[in-house]
Amino acid sequence: MTDVSYDEIAKKKSLIRYSLLAAAIVLCSIFGLWSNQAPQSNLNKSNTLTISGPWEISSLEPSQQGYILTRMQVLETLVNVNSSGELTPGLALNWQVSDDGLSWLFTLRNNVKFHDGTLLNAAAVVASLGHAQQKHGALNKADIAQIDAIGNNQIRITLSQPYISLAALLTNYSTSILAPASYKTDGDIKTLYGTGAYQMASFSPPHKLTVKQFSGYWAQQAKIPYATYLTGHRAESRLLQAKTGDADIVFTLDPAMLSQLTSNQTVKVHSNLIPRTLFLKLNNSHPLLSELRTRQALDLALDRHSIATNVLHAQGSETSQVLPRSFAQWYLSDISTSKLNLVKAQALLSEQGWHKNESGILQRDDQPFSLTLMTYADRPELTVVATAIQAQWAKLGIDLKINVTNSSMIPAGHQDGTLELALIARNFGSIADPFPIISTDFSNGGGDWGTMNWHNAQVDNAINQLAREYEPAKRFTLSQTIAKVIHQQLPVLPITSYTQHTSVNQRVQNFKFDPYERNYFINQMAFK
Amino acid sequence: MWALVKRQCFQLMLVIWGVGTLTFVLMRSLPGDMAYRIAASRYGQDNVDSAAAELVRQELNLDQSVFSSYLSWLTDLLQFNLGNSLVSGLPVIELVQHQLGHSLLLAIFGIMLSALIALPLGVWSAQKGGAVNTALVWLSTATRAMPVFVLGLLLILLFSLRWQLLPVAGFGTWQHLVLPSLTLAISLAAVSNRVVHTSTRQVITSSFYRFSRVKGLNESQTFVRHGIRNIAVPVVAFIGVQLVSVVEGIVMIESLFSWPGIGHGLAHAIFARDIPVIQGCALMMGGLFVLLNGVIDLLCHTIDPRGQQER
């Protein structure tokens, strides 16, 4: 046994006391340091607009989450699009295309300042677009041979093949114009200097982005000094942020929760149609899906009205067309939405020898009518709609299995041919003109997010002609032809258009919704 | 003492190598094309396609052999370089520091708050027994049975919606820390108060405790001189275990309160097959666990030095 003296005990006690005190001081210092790390210490409720949305921002590279940077008005593009889908001047004042459709000349706006104080010029635009070409993005849809600076305020884009929608491609966030000082030598982003009404204040990936007003902005100056974007992963959290006023604007509210906001006097909910369509992608070479009559039966067994009304709480959003009414050129106004008709659907399948077995599953030559539907959890409503379709088709005798996976499995499944059916939500508004997306998704056998193993010469020809056709009347006819063939042949089964629900706190004035989701128009907003 | 520290250092190195290698093997064995997964996380659901996946494959040289990519990771590790995220391109060390810092902050405050709740409740129920103890058993069971997500929502409804005292979600100020810490604390205290109860019961029914009363000490003197230290050993060991599991396992709280912790970051990195981030997180957490276990061992050693003195 060790001898222990009272002195030693006293010493030990004081050592413990001092250790505890030191630990407390260290802990307080860490917390203090952490609190002070927030560079937005001068941010408060009265000078900051708080926006909440489900999208994470993990990078400042425009080709990745550039959509958040254009929405927060840090970055701008050469061309803009208004709510009617018309192209309007952005950083480019105007543009002309040569008769052969190969040379596009853009004249830049004068006296536009980047956030680092330098002036926008042709060299900066050429460098920025060159950077965008190296990355994944909209610009690669056109066959660009060269981008040149013509003097100080004009740029010329030379194409190898005519491409009617080049100006529309330049509305996409991935083509945003950055100051030359934004880039490191290897092309990565060093510090983000755009031309927007707001400049970067702080960035905490992947959850938070704070911007502050830019006094050198070329158009309407922002009135609200700061704006913060916060990722709210859970729909419940975002709803509560709207209810408590923690967030001034909350995007992508869950339709099922909207009723909780109706009685709230401090919040107004805006519901706007956006050019996004929820549809079923079919593998048209699959033995069970290759026959048109089968696809017609599946189409007739869908109760779109119930899905729109009861699942998505967006009555009237049901559709059997790929593009929404807002794209008049692509919308067949004389066609009504397909209605549920189980009797006709059953008759169409019986004609092909499908009959229900004792378990209620359709069967032909000992083969059950069994399919796997793939969908992804990025959009929570997709899984619910998938189960609704499973239940609706079960009435017809179809055994539908659902595989909820990562969104990347849709293009991967398309490429390796393993995909049978997929429920997807396709955004046709990421580029002002839907043509670039239609041409990739629906021509020459289909695309990752469009038709699969479906060949139609009429559609392919119309798409080829559209790429070089400038005459509006002819463009209209060609687009209508494509829409009509898709509607008749059913290589995909559209279900509903999308309604975006946004809550706006009453203290925010002049809120405006951009159906193309390119801009939050914060510079036009003010607090009451 | 030094032998203990040396053993912990050796363990730390072994854990770092083992965790890193295991993570690498497991991630490479997962189904699905890595290039597509990374492209989906980089460009978002609307823009992931085969062209994006091909670009990612070429840029990151994903076609190189498994062995050569393992070797290059090991070489980088020996130079203390954890690499860059395959999704954001940011250095892994920055991401891990940011996320682990927030997780540790939440875990430490959560544990401290849980101790403040569990210690008095556990001791009180052990001393009173009877109806108080039964009520606490029911309350603890009910709280523990409730998903932490529901508990968090209830606290938000009370503190944010009804009383408007604290923000619903976010980070950056001390107010943002309160609700996630409290949610965590209540959930942890639901179990740890029972450990305190049992430990206290064992001590106060022991013969040495009764003897101290016989020799003339009053109840509070007995508790301070002979109770606290004896109760502390199992309680400190249990809180240590809780702290370790809390650092990694609070994904739901982080998700609900938009807290940028490592649990949530790790889950997303796994979805995205962001191997350097997964390895970085796993390494740091493995290291941290060894460190925390070491600290807990030392603490228990200090609280109860009997074994050491007898040796």
Task: Give the structure's gist in a few sentences.
Chain A has 528 residues and is an alpha+beta fold.
Our count of helices of chain B gives 14
What is the alpha-carbon Rg of chain B in Å?
24 Å
Low-confidence stretches of chain A: none
Strand content of chain B: under 5%
Proportion of residues in helical segments of chain B: over 70%
The largest β sheet of chain B comes out as:
none
Large-scale geometry of chain B: globular
In the CATH hierarchy, the architecture of the largest domain in chain A is: Roll
Percent helix range of chain A: 25-40%
Structural class of chain B: mainly alpha
Report the radius of gyration of chain A as a whole number of Å.
28 Å
Which strand order spans the largest sheet of chain A, edge to edge or round the barrel?
A: 8-9-10-1-11-21-12-18-16-17
Please count the helical segments of chain A.
14
- N/C terminus separation of chain A: 77 Å
Strand elements of chain A, count: 23
What does this molecule look like?
The complex is a heterodimer of chains A (528) and B (311). With 528 residues, chain A is an alpha+beta fold. Chain A is 30% helix and 24% strand. In chain A, 49% of the residues are buried. Chain B is mostly helical and 311 residues long. Chain B contains 14 helices and no strands. Chain B has helices spanning 2-29, 34-43, 50-60, 66-78, 92-128, 130-145, 148-162, 174-204, 207-214, 219-248, 251-256, 262-272, 275-303, 306-310. The radius of gyration of chain B is 24 Å and the shape is globular. Chains A and B meet through helix 1, helix 2, helix 5, helix 11 and strand 18 of A and helix 2, helix 3, helix 5, helix 7 and helix 12 of B.
